[in-house]
Amino acid sequence: MPFVFRKRYFFQNPDDRTLFIDRKLIRSEVTDLVPGSGIDLKKFAAVQFNRNRPFTFLLISRLITDKGVMEFVDAVKKLKSSGLNAHFQILGAKDPAHQRGIPIATINQWVESKTVEYLGTTKDVRAFISKADCIVLPSYREGTPRTLLEAASSAKPIITTDVPGCHHVVDHNHNGLLCRLKDSDDLASKMSQMANFDDDVLKTLGLNGRRKMEEEFDEKIVISKYLNALQSVKVTA
Predict the structure, then answer these.
(1) 194: Cβ–Cβ under 8 A, 6 or more apart, which residues?
(2) What parts of the chain have a pLDDT lower than 70?
């Protein structure tokens, strides 16, 4: 017997879902939420706590403006001017051909002036995450940023923007800090605060993030959601 499948639309965060429903682009009863693509908790295992001297911040992102890379670099300049002793790294692909890509000359200038350390690209971010003290992503908007899921699952504190997608992965003062959108001053303030936390606070933030991933973002939750949806929307013709 043939089957007819009703359509069902999945959103990676409730803000996007609400936006589509409020604008009457979709009916609420055919929508559902999933925690992004989820995270493999075994692959991204909790890293044993170890504080670097100096403290190390790592931004993992394609080098386009929407990811808040310019705000990150501006914040780094402010922190260095204030005398903060920390190490600032960027890991991710250059993309100058993108409409909002950052020019190669600009990136080279950051490196030559020793403002940041550019780590290039990698197929496996785990080694880089494990060596950092805090992962930073001042993005303008996300679905559910995989970088932050990987960082939290690895038990690393996070600083990210208080925007859709990001603020569903990070609870302020629980597993990281939230900063204001496109505000390098506020980002610098949050980075300074993070660098000055004592070891117990940093460890607690990391463990809270790991627990949040286990409870809310395990990839098994996503798979189960999809399988249940397939069973519920299938009807005989």
Answers:
(1) 55, 57, 133, 134, 157, 159, 177, 202
(2) 1-6, 229-230, 232-237
Q: Tell me, what amino acid is at 34?
A: V
Pseudo-torsion of CA 186, 191, 193, 198, nearest 10°?
170
Is-contact 133 154, C-beta < 8 A? no
Query: If DSSP states are collapsed to H, E and C, what string results for 129-189?
Result: HHHCCEEEECCCCCCCCHHHHHHHHCCCCEEEECCCCHHHHCCECCCEEEECCCCHHHHHH
Q: What is the pLDDT of residues 63-114, one digit of tens each?
A: 999 999 999 999 999 999 999 999 999 999 999 999 999 999 999 999 999 9
Q: Using alpha carbons only, what angle is made at residue 146 by residues 145 and 149, rounded to the nearest 5 degrees? A: 100
For residues 200-233, one letter each, b for 16 or more C-beta atoms within 10 angstroms of the residue's C-beta and e for the rest, the string is eebbebbebbbebbeeebbbeebeebeeebeeee
In the chain, what is the greatest distance between 2 CA atoms, to the nearest angstrom? 72
**pTM strictly above 0.70:** yes
In the block, which residue shows the tokens 């679905």? 143
126: left (phi over 0), alpha (psi -120 to 50) or beta: alpha
C-alpha span between 122 and 13 (Å, rounded): 27
d(CA 200, CA 177): 16
Q: Name all domains of the chain by residue range, CATH numbers in brackets.
A: 3-36+218-232 (no CATH), 55-217 (3.40.50.2000)
- Whether the Cβ atoms of residue 155 and residue 46 lie closer than 8 Å to each other: yes
The alpha-carbon radius of gyration of the chain (Å, integer) is 19
Please give the structure tokens belonging to residue 78: 């402010």
